[in-house]
């Protein structure tokens, strides 16, 4: 392209130079002819006895000074008075003179004794405005060609210089472009863009691209859905977005993030962030977001199942000990005491089972309470189901799934048992209430632990808050945050109080659709 532009420019410049040279020659010979024709010396000399003697030196002086090829002064009939070649004086002029004899000057290209030339023929008038002589000045085509060739050489040199500069610039631009595109051409870049765009918006993981100033350069659909980002998020700083404070701090920090768990109002999000560099330049960072809401709920259920399994194993061991005790009492001849020992343990277990099953028709909640009661008993804590607990099988709508109830009640019971054990005392207890009150489902868990201080009520539902030693955001301190998240998703509320220890009451509306 550069070569074509330079070549085209050179051709146009040559054509313009050629046309300009001819036009300049026409103006030059016209000016010289007019000047000679208007000179009084010429009009006076042609009326003398020997015009050539006076006019020949004059014409040659004008020719040399004006830089033209010839200055010919002739009679009205075309007989030369002057000529660059003195031998041609007295001979007829070769060319057209009719219009000049009629009093009109004109310009033409004609081949005369000096070869092809651009010439001007003008009339010479006397005082009565009669044509008494004719003047012809001209520049040969050979001189014009030499002038054009001189200009052409300069044009060629200029074109070669422009071509060299353009070629070098093209090479440098192309090399820089190749370096930035990793050697890919336009077709490959177009294909990579299509792949890039498709992948960004089809992966289920959220993806954020942040520039060095922590502004969002790109957010795919999954990231927008997970973080509830606005449509005009591109170009906005992370600090301007409605995100949890811990997540904003993590995204705005300079360091990397590896599997950090953050809670939004609807989701449990695992965040990874790594820097993007090109040589020594900081291009920003790439953030991936994974939705662990379902996984966290499943993990809670798995923990419950594992707890149930441990309880069953422990109860099997205890049952074997009790069976050996009963057998030994029988062998010792004390059957009444054996019966009393066996029925006492059976009545205690059966009483709790009957109470839970009769009060709670929801099988998942009933199983959860029985399992947690066994776990609490192993740790020396009595789980008490209050008499006002009652939930029938039609009270809980489908929108309020059993998984969310397990998340809420399971985490509250685990925290309550831990608090009761840490507080110690003669008889640590945990009290559970689950009932329908009007249009709400109330889940109430109280313990005999140390309780929650008034200054900590606002903080206990944040990720990473815990009273346990060595609490970590990625480990402990997540239970109450999950409880708050589930309650918010279903439009519920949480009330924190204190009796002997802490009291947590979660109220969930039964007629509200869960938020996305």
Automatic annotation (TrEMBL):
This is histidine kinase. Its EC number is 2.7.13.3. It is an enzyme of class 2 (transferase). The chain crosses the membrane at residues 152-174. PROSITE patterns: HIS_KIN. It comes from Actinoallomurus liliacearum. It is a multi-pass membrane protein. One of its GO terms (molecular function) is kinase activity. Keywords: ATP-binding, Cell membrane, Kinase, Membrane, Nucleotide-binding, Phosphoprotein, Transferase, Transmembrane, Transmembrane helix, Two-component regulatory system. Residues 286-512 form the Histidine kinase domain. It catalyses: ATP + protein L-histidine = ADP + protein N-phospho-L-histidine.
